[in-house]
């Protein structure tokens, strides 16, 4: 079985923010790739650069103060960092779409949801007749599981619940049949039961439409449920990149292990959840070398030198000097 | 008047809808109660403010007076019948540029003729639509579309009338009647309530109010009541058009500054500050002094190009707030061009404060026009409230100051009260 083609590839992407208090190296040398039809989960704490990476792909970094200073974003072989504004506008919504964390504020309050979905369609396909556009919008609303879509289509965002609005957002971003959907914490603002529904919906639609999904989240549970591949990010860099089974079974980066340890485990009656000591360093003053070393139990003098992202086994890349030692330890003491 | 009626119709519709299904299940009732547009909510809130609500009615009444001024006061008889035949001089005079020299008057005359007709048609159409199968929102869409069509038709016919040449002779019908009576002819003539026009001269200068001239006669021997009546047309027009001009400029500059930020913002901000640092009224005075043949259009234009700064700042602030909102990022992520995002996504969210500012702006534009006329820098060919006050000031006649002063006071107050009510209605914090 041949591997499907690579749809999106980031090569050493660097996005910096130049502000009055200094330069924030929000994304500093991120490389990963996403194949057609695959779901790539990007996990990490707040401020680790996962959203900035997504915005860089969309070309939506506020400029100034933000700037892509290095690296390339290859979408179907085309470098998006060099694409013109007009070309990016063409791609956005048509080939690459994005859904956001807050469905309640991501829709324009003055238009009906139907008008907003139709607008997304008409901007990219100006030849569609009004009747067809409406029919397709209703069809899409049915697809994302909105009951009585014919009536709901004429409602305003304030008349709908958060879960419904996220469904509308998904309908809006999928109406033009994009090849890549970037979902920036799509379920964070929703109830747990709704979260599961939305994830299930996204999985179903992905299979149906054959698109790739870049799922940004800080919830390892969401990753376990939906992703094929996982990128763990820390401090604007990729810490670990592998498929979801291997990540959960044999993690090779101390940060990944620490993340798993901080998940509540109902089988063990612990009083306190272990936390990762220290704070996420500010993007303005990352430590030199490995950026996790101030909080890492394995850190030693070697960590003053930045560890390269190396492939320790096929399809498993890790940026840590101590991954061998860590794995040996884990074999004797299973992760929590 | 039209907006009033539309809003009323919308409310009636609302009441009818909510009252229509008392028996259907609770879910249905909830759905129809939820089916409120933003306009419905604001209108219901506005109605709670009694003073503002009646001020709006009063403004409607003022517009009514302005539109139907010729019915109340004109020296042309509705019907003029002699042995030679019957004519309708009042009607033919309506679109006669020799009789109504001011294009504003022609516009209001057109509204008088076309307005009630199209309004009746429109209301009938709404009734039909309501009986039809369309859902509320689809119905509203059709109504809006057809309403715009009517407005467009009126605008086109106005242009046509202005382009039409007129070559009628100025006839004084009362004199003709007297002559005919002397000659022993029988003449049937039906005149409007008062037989004066705002430009008719020849009465006793500075005459006190009497049964013949209920508000007296001004220094230039014209009937004050008629001038105040026709002055309503001028004042309202100046207010609305001057404000439209500066709201347009303000939105354009404010939106550009707020949306793009950075250097564009800094540049526009400096332009705003420089314009604001000059006292606007003196700029208006100076500019008006340069104009040789002053017309009310110069007044509108001058107010418009000088007073836009407030709106520009307001719009800039709203844009700064809104451009960071998620729905704007979402719109970009869908690949919409900037122009579309500015005018179709952010601007509709920013119109509330602009609408309030515009209402207050109309009041202040009316005051500016009166002041200019009072200082003798107004349009001498148009009947203006300030001009009458100026004649009162020059002659010391109290009735020349009191009546137009009262007209200005009432109009400006009503506009300000409506503006205040609108501000409160648009404020979600004050909503219950």
Describe it for me?
Chain A is of the alpha/beta class and 336 residues long. In chain A, 33% of the residues lie in helices and 24% in strands. In chain A, the strands form two sheets. Chain A has an eight-stranded mixed beta sheet, with helices on both faces. In chain A, strands 2-1-4-5 form a four-stranded antiparallel beta sheet, covered by helices on one side. In chain A, a hairpin with a 2-residue loop joins strand 11 and strand 12. In chain A, helix 5 packs across helix 7. The model of chain A has no long low-confidence stretch (mean pLDDT 84). With 432 residues, chain B is mainly α. Chain B folds into two domains: 2-173, no CATH class; 224-430, MetI-like fold. Chain B has helices spanning 2-20, 26-34, 38-48, 50-67, 69-72, 89-93, 103-131, 136-163, 173-182, 224-260, 262-277, 280-290, 296-306, 309-322, 326-333, 338-374, 385-395, 398-426; strands spanning 79-82, 85-87, 188-190. Chain B has a three-stranded antiparallel beta sheet, with no helix packed on it. In chain B, strand 1 (79-82) and strand 2 form a beta hairpin. Chain B is globular, with a radius of gyration of 25 Å. Mean pLDDT of chain B is 84; it is low at 11-33. Chain A binds chain B through residues 58, 60, 64, 88-94, 97-98, 100, 102, 105-112, 119-120, 123-124, 151, 154, 156, 159, 169, 172-173, and chain B through 34-35, 37-38, 135, 137-138, 262, 325-327, 329-337, 340, 345, 348-349.
């Amino acid at each position: 079985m041949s591997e499907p083609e690579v749809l999106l590839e980031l090569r050493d992407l660097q996005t910096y923010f130049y502000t009055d208090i200094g330069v924030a190296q929000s994304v500093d040398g991120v490389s990963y790739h996403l194949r057609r039809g695959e779901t790539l989960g990007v996990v990490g704490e707040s401020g680790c650069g996962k959203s900035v990476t997504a915005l860089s792909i969309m070309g939506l970094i506020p400029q100034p103060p933000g700037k892509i200073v290095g690296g390339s974003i290859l979408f179907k072989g085309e470098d998006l960092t060099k694409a013109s504004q007009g070309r990016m506008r063409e791609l956005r919504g048509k080939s690459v779409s994005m859904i956001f964390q807050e469905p309640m504020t991501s829709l324009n309050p003055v238009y009906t949801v139907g008008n907003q979905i139709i607008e997304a369609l008409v901007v990219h396909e100006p030849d569609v007749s009004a009747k067809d556009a409406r029919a397709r919008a209703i069809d899409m609303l049915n697809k994302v599981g909105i009951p009585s879509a014919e009536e709901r289509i004429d409602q305003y965002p304030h008349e709908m619940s958060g879960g419904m609005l996220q469904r509308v957002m998904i309908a809006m971003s999928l109406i033009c049949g994009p090849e890549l959907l970037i979902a920036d914490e799509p379920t964070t603002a929703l109830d747990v039961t709704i979260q599961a529904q939305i994830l299930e919906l996204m999985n179903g639609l992905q299979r149906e439409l054959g698109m790739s999904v870049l799922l940004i989240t800080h919830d390892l549970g969401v990753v376990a449920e939906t992703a094929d591949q996982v990128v763990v990010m820390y401090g604007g860099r990729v810490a670990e990149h592998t498929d979801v089974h291997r990540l959960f079974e044999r993690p090779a980066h101390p940060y990944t292990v620490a993340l798993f340890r901080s998940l509540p485990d109902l089988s063990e009656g612990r009083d306190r959840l272990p936390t990762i000591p220290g704070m996420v360093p500010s993007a303005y003053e990352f430590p030199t070398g490995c950026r996790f070393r101030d909080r890492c139990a394995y850190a030693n003098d070697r960590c003053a030198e930045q560890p390269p992202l190396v492939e320790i086994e096929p399809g498993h890349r890790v940026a840590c000097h101590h991954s061998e030692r860590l794995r040996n330890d884990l074999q004797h003491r299973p992760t929590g | 008047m039209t907006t009033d009626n539309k809003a009323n119709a919308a409310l009636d519709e609302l009441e009818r809808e909510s009252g229509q299904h008392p028996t259907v299940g609770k879910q249905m009732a909830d759905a129809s109660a939820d089916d409120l547009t933003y306009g419905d909510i604001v209108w219901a809130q506005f109605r709670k403010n009694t003073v503002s609500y009646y001020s709006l009615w009063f403004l409607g009444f003022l517009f009514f007076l302005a539109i139907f001024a010729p019915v109340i006061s004109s020296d042309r008889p509705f019907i003029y019948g002699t042995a030679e035949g019957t004519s309708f001089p009042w009607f033919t005079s309506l679109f006669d540029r020799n009789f109504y020299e001011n294009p504003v008057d022609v516009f209001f005359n057109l509204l008088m003729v076309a307005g009630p007709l199209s309004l009746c048609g429109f209301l009938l159409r709404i009734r039909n639509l309501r009986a039809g199968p369309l859902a509320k929102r689809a119905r509203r869409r059709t109504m809006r579309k057809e309403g715009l069509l009517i407005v467009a038709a009126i605008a086109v016919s106005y242009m046509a009338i202005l382009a039409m040449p007129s070559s009628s002779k100025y006839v004084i019908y009362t004199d003709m009647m007297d002559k005919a009576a002397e000659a022993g002819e029988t003449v049937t003539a039906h005149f409007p309530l008062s037989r004066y026009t705002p430009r008719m001269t020849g009465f006793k200068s500075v005459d006190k109010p009497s049964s013949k001239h209920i508000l007296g006669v001004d220094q230039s021997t014209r009937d004050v009541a008629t001038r105040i009546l026709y002055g309503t047309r001028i004042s309202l027009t100046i207010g609305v058009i001057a404000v439209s001009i500066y709201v347009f400029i303000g939105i354009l500059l404010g939106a550009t500054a707020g949306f793009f930020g950075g250097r564009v913002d800094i540049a526009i901000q400096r332009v705003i500050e420089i314009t604001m640092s000059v006292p606007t009224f003196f700029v208006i005075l100076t500019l008006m002094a340069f104009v040789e043949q002053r017309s009310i259009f110069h007044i509108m234009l001058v107010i418009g190009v000088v007073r836009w700064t407030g709106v520009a700042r307001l719009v800039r602030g709203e844009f700064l707030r809104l451009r960071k909102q998620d729905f704007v990022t979402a719109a970009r992520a869908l690949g919409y061009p900037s122009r579309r995002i500015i005018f179709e996504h952010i601007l509709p969210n920013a119109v509330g404060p602009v609408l309030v500012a515009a209402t207050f702006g109309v009041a202040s534009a009316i005051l500016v026009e009166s002041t200019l006329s009072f200082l003798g820098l107004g349009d001498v060919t148009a009947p203006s409230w300030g001009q009458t006050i100026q004649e009162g000031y020059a002659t010391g006649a109290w009735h020349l100051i009191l009546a137009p002063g009262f007209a200005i006071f009432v109009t400006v107050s009503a506009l300000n009260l409506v503006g205040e009510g609108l501000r409160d209605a648009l404020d979600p914090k004050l909503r219950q």
